[in-house]
Design a protein that fits this description.
This protein has helices spanning 21-35, 48-59, 91-98, 111-126, 143-153, 157-160, 169-183, and strands at residues 8-12, 40-43, 65-71, 84-88, 103-106, 133-137, 163-166. By secondary structure, it is of the alpha/beta class. The chain has one domain (8-178): Rossmann fold (3-Layer(aba) Sandwich). The N and C termini lie close together (12 Å).
């Protein structure tokens, strides 16, 4: 668990891409659902899809704590949706904090999001941490998700089972609750 006694969820997603209106609404709804739980939520940005997620957190009757794990650029400090700012030296020390969470939810994104997902997946494999999962939430037809799927296909069954593909907020929440229950 990253620097906290509470259960934690890391949200990976694009700081630049915004997605379709329907996807944005789903991401905002996901933020609202997670905000109602007693969690530490860790994000790496406050813009793009992550910004929409944070809008949902902000609108909900928030119980969760939102932590921004950033490196370099301190403009994030003024964001009203962030409870704690954790500044790290570089991308990899930032990612090492995010990788300590119990659950990882991946939104649509670009190369940075895919890299974070792959590094997290490799870390779970290397440490044989099968009680944690990566939940990929988005359009299964997305080119980026197809890229990830192609990489997962050639892996051992146990490693493929570290990844779950969710088509809607309800599925994401079911899997998140299941994973968090293993760590209570």
């Amino acid at each position: 668990m990253p620097m906290t006694e509470r259960l934690s969820v890391a949200i990976f997603g694009s700081a630049n891409v915004t997605g379709t209106n329907d996807y944005q609404a789903q991401i905002e709804a996901l933020g609202g659902e997670l905000a109602k739980k007693d969690l530490d939520i860790f994000v790496g940005s406050t813009t793009g899809l992550i910004g929409r997620f944070l809008e949902g957190v902000h609108k909900a009757q928030k119980v969760s704590i939102v932590n921004l794990v950033a490196y370099g650029d301190q403009r994030y400090m003024s964001d009203q949706h962030i409870d704690n700012l954790i500044l790290k030296e570089c991308y990899f020390t930032r990612l090492s904090v995010l990788c300590e969470c119990e659950v990882f939810i991946v939104l649509d994104g670009q190369l940075g999001t895919m890299a974070e997902t792959m590094v997290t997946w490799n870390r779970l494999q290397a440490n044989k941490e099968f009680d944690r999962k990566i939940i990929i939430f988005g359009d299964i037809e997305s080119i980026k998700i197809k890229f990830l799927l192609n990489n997962f296909v050639f892996s051992k069954q146990a490693y493929r089972e570290l990844v779950y593909f969710a088509k809607d907020v309800e599925e994401v929440m079911k899997m998140t609750d299941k994973m968090l229950a293993l760590h209570e």
